[in-house]
Structures are given as structure tokens and as C-alpha cells.
Amino acid sequence: xxxxxxEEYLESLRKMRPNIHKFGELIEDVTTYPATKRTVEGxxxxxxxxxxxxxxxxxxxxxxxxxxxxxxxLSIIKSPEDQIANSRLKRLMFxxxxxxxxxxxxxxxxxxxxxxxxxxxxxxxxxxxHQRFLAWLKDAQKRDITISGALTDPKGDRxxxxxxxxxxxxxxxxxxRRDDGIVxxxxxxxxxxxxxxxxxxxxxxxxxxxxxKDYCVAFVTPRxxxxxxxxxxxxxxxxxxxxxxxxxxxxxxxxGITQAYxxxxxxxxxxERVFMLGEWKYTGPTVVNFILPYRSAIGGCVAGQGDxxxxxxxxxxxxxxxADKVFSDKITTMIINNExxxxxxxxxxxxxxxxxxxxxQPDPLLANVNKVHVATLPxxxxxxxxxxxxxxxETGCMPAAVDxxxxxxxxxVQKYLKAAKSADSRVKAARxxxxxxMGGGVPGCMHGGGSPDGAKMFIRMFYNSEKTVEMVKxxxxxxxxxxxxxxxxxx
Length: 491
Fold this sequence. Notes:
By secondary structure, the chain is of the alpha+beta class. The chain is built from 15 helices and 14 strands.
């Protein structure tokens, strides 16, 4: 049976070599360490859901590689319905965990990107990358592993190409080629959900030219591989406040977002796990293969986040004694924001096209339009949530749970935090507003999946403005040639 149970998932993480550090400590067990166990529990929700009749259809799909039900996170998106399911799943996971489960969705998108790219390289160049990839994916499906995706390089001086950097490791690169594999050095940074992952799927972080072919590499590696050191970054809602018994300081009981820096110090990758090695012409298409499904489906992620913001804001207002109708217009705006990002992603899926490999690729114009919306609308939704909740949900002026429950003065804290409902309910609801608008529940809206300026570049590329000019000329019966004066004529 390909589908793991929740306990089997936890056990798979416990067996891994400790190589993640945080707060100056080596994390011996990510399933119990206060700053990582919540993200493990959140990502692990899907292992519970795939055995639950209520959610099984949403989180699993039949594999055409092993002819068994598998996690949807390990599937190849081959139809608009599959891509729509991607958006719906991201929204559902936010509803279940209260936060981001990016350690699975980025890995899912990475493997889908390489499914198409390896097909292209195998078809064009005669290399066996696609067959290697399929062999790995078949095994991954059988093991039901969790995969994180890693694209972002440190980059160094942004005015220089990778080979021009003072330190050549500013982009992950191949430093040795062996008969049985390669050795890589460098880093991938700001990688989501790594503590919850069994393996890491690494893609090139940008489009490269021939002079940077050593940086044109894609592979998958165990998260605990020798030579890989991981440092978790800081997030509100991790550390001491996540300890058992502390209470509402960590409002989400089975979910938490983590990010990490991955340092590759001469890591060996065997040939069977290498899916690109110097094919620089395919780095740009690989990045596009990643961003199309990611930017389409991230609208579902932030819509789920927005749903949490609405519920948290209303709960806080109700504990203050205020009726929902007081905020009717504001709530309507929040709903519109949520459904805009969700529906643009659905439209991108529906109007996509099939890659020759069989992979389904969302419409590039709409996917990038969605990314720009994702970089703006959730922030407006957060502002409104904080407005509705009042200062208790936005200023950070709430005593910690240990003070709330202190035997000497806790009764005073509770007395003066009480409103129309109990102090406990009021603080928990307000803490969720804080969590979902400026804390650990916030996914990367602005730069997750790339920058909005990068998306705008693609929008200009994929929107045919010249076609609209010719359309209007025809309707208005304008026969004169009226070219763009700012565009140089081709020689």
C-alpha cells in the first residue's frame, strides 16, 4: 500500500540523520522539538486525511505509474481538473492547519516542472533524464514521501552573473563530475517546510547562459544527506511559546510555518537522481514550468488564509459583543479578495494547455496576473481583519499565556481582558488574528513563487498589446500605419 499513516510519516522523520539547527541547537527530533513539531504536524495532516473517507478524494489520486492510490502531492498534473484540485487542496490545507504547508506544494510543483523539462531534454537531446525521473517518481510514490522544493539561490551581487561573483558559491553549482554522479556546493535559501520533508527537490533558480552551465543542475536528494547543513529561520510562533501547556500563544495546535537555509558542502548526488546537468538552454523553460502551476494555485492558498482571517476577525468582534452586520461591507471586501485570487487561479487552470509530455500547464498570462493579485489583495484582507478585531489583534498588546494563568496576578489579567465573552475565548480569537495577519500563519504572499515585478514582466510578455491596437484600427477603420514610437524597428 502506497499511502502512509500519520504515525508512519512521523517515524520516517525520526529515522533521519539530525542536520537541522535552530537557536544554536542541533535538532535531534523534528517531530518533538518545539520550533519544528508544529510544521511537522501540519504537513502530516494529509497523512490522516488520505485515510479519512471525507477527504480521501481531495488528497489522493490513482497513479498511472504504480496503479495504486497515491498522495496528490506526488502526482503529475495532466488535466485542468488536476490543476483545479491543486488550488482546492491548498485552500483546504489552510483550513485544516491554519497555516502554510509549503514543504509539500513547492516540492509537488518542482517535480511537475521537471516532468516536462526532462521530457523536453530527452526528446531533443537523447539523454535519459525523463526515464531517470520516472524511476525516481515511481519509487517516491511507493514510499509516500514528503518532498520540499528548493529554487532560491543567495545570488550575491545582483548586477553580476553567477560565474562573475567574487564567491562562486552564491549560486548552487556542480564542482565535480564523477562516473557515478556529481558533487554540488552552494546554498538554497528561504526554503519552506524543510523540517517536515524526507527529500529535497532542487531546481535551477534562474535562466542561465552557457558560461554558467555549472549552475544548470536539477536533482533530488534526501534531506539528511551527508554534507547538507540546514539552519531554520525565525518566525513568530516558534520556540518557547510552542511548548506544551503554554496555551494560546501558539493558537494553531497542529500547524506551523518554518523556513530554512540549506548549505550544500560538497554533497554527492548519484546519477539516477540527477535530472539536469549543464543543459543551460532548458533552465529558463524549467523556471516557467515551475511558476505556471505554482502562481496559479497560490491563489487557493491565500484564499484559505483569507478565510481564516475572516473567521478570526468575526470571532474577536463577537467576543467584544459586536454583531457581524456591523462589519458587513468590510467582510464583503475580504470575501471578494479571497475569491479573486482563487478564481483567477481556476481560470488559469481551465484555459491552460497540454505540454507534449502530457503535463497540464496553466495559462501563462492568467497565472502571472494571479501572482500580482496575491502580492496585493491578502495584505488588504489582513488590514481589514485587524481593523475589525481592534487593537487586541493588531498591536501585540496581549499578555503571554504564562502571565494569563499566573497564580499571583493572572486573575487580574483575565478580569480586565473579559468582554462580552470570556477572556480566554477573546484572547484565543485575537491571537488567531495576529497569527494569520502578521505571524506564523502568513505564507509568502509578496515573494512566494517569485516577485510581483517578475510576474509583471511575464504579463507584458504574454499579453499581445499589438493585437489590441490592430483590433481597434479595424473597428475604427484606421488604415494609417501607427507603430509604437518607443519601439525600435527591426533591421
